[in-house]
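User: Hi! I'm working on a homework problem where we have to compare a predicted structure to a textbook description. Could you give me the structure for the chain below?
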Amino acid sequence: MPRSVHLSGLKDGLRQALEDRLVRAGASISEEPLDADLTIGLGTDEECDIAVLPPGSNSENAGLLVTLRDVIIPDGSRDWGNGTLLDWIEQIKLGEIPQTNSDSRYWVNVRDVADALTTLALSEDGLVSIGQVNMCGRRGWNGADVVDEIRVLWERYNNAINHSHTAESLSGVPSPVRSIVPQVERPELGGLHRALIESGGEGWHPLVTMRTSLMELIACTE
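Assistant: Happy to help. Predicted structure tokens:
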């Protein structure tokens, strides 16, 4: 199991979450790539063992390419698709109605992403041989449903801090999942699931709920 990991590329909320998770898993963070057992590049195509890049990017300089999208990062980072949610939250706070399309997004919390990348990086049997995997949430989310959920949670948050809850405001909060058929096909996640199992994990099973992720986003943008 590699104990020293070098991170390069974007210095954002994903990098911070990954660094924290690696340290909790027993790894040390190396400032120099030559001193590390394994290197991870975030949003950069430089030579590394694991490259984490947005959709449409390719890398010939990495042993494993993770194509990452639709990540919810509560600290306010705008990369990996998180900017869309931040814009919607800001518009709702201003009393505006965000404009969405019918496309589905496959949102996943940054903590689930950091957990998976740590499992891949610290595999006892070395880096898996799969060349490229997709990483995103398992369930499709319609934009209009997510906006409606943000609006409800924002109202509840305001009522809580202003001590203005009513019986109506505390009841009947809907689930954000109402659109049954996603409008955009989900990226293939079988490769990621197998890679995590090969690395000693239990496969790709994101644990943080959408509602929890949105509540964290709202709280962190205050």
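For your comparison, note the following. Helices lie at 13-24, 82-93, 110-121, 143-161, 190-198, 210-220. The longest strand covers residues 62-68. Good luck with the assignment!
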